[in-house]
Specification:
Layout: H1 15-37, H2 42-77, H3 81-96
Helix pairs in contact: 1-2, 2-3
Length: about 100
């Protein structure tokens, strides 16, 4: 009997770091919630939101890096380089569209 294996993703090697970073972001979001509950100054809240956006951008860049180095490499080996590049560029486009 074989057990299904967990797929190897581009971020598999850095998964622990990625999860730690996401937990920090989660804590920052909870901090902003408390700031609003405590009626903190608007600019202070906005500054914290900016910090969260930067942290999420760093997570996204790490995921893109893993995708480019692992997933696209595998896709190219399978003859799907153009498909993988199109998919990644669509993801980058979505990341760049804000507000």
């Amino acid at each position: 009997m074989t057990t299904p294996s967990t797929p190897v993703r581009g971020y598999t090697a850095s998964k622990d770091q990625l999860l730690a970073r996401l937990r920090r972001v989660e804590g920052q979001v909870r901090g902003i919630e408390k700031m609003v509950e405590d009626d903190r100054y608007c600019i202070d809240v906005l500054t914290q939101i900016s910090a969260i956006q930067a942290a999420l951008d760093k997570v996204a860049l790490g995921l893109l890096d893993g995708h480019a180095r692992h997933c696209m490499h595998e896709g190219a080996a399978d003859g799907r380089a153009d498909e993988m590049a199109t998919e990644m560029m669509a993801a980058v486009g979505r990341l760049m569209k804000r507000g």
